[in-house]
What we know:
It contains four helices and no strands.
Amino acid sequence: MTRALNPRLLWTWLLLVVLSQLADLATTWLSLATGLREDNPIVAMTLASGHLPLYGLIKLGLVTALGLAMLSGRWEALAGARVVVAVFAAVALANLGSALGIG
């Protein structure tokens, strides 16, 4: 028998996932607006055709899928959420640094 996950913990991490994705989306847009290029080839292909809203919709789908997995109470989903937050927070910080000419 597995122990149930604390709902407050789940909602906190789900909020952090959402915020990390919004930060990545916003800093990607900022980077492109300052003349930088996207390094991720899949994202670059999506954005090159002028589909920033599609990129946002894809992110929404990924957040929704991870959120549903987390709300099912699986520890693996919570661990995945932690990885997603760490990775995309780092990406957003790198994007912001590049857009501001830092680093």
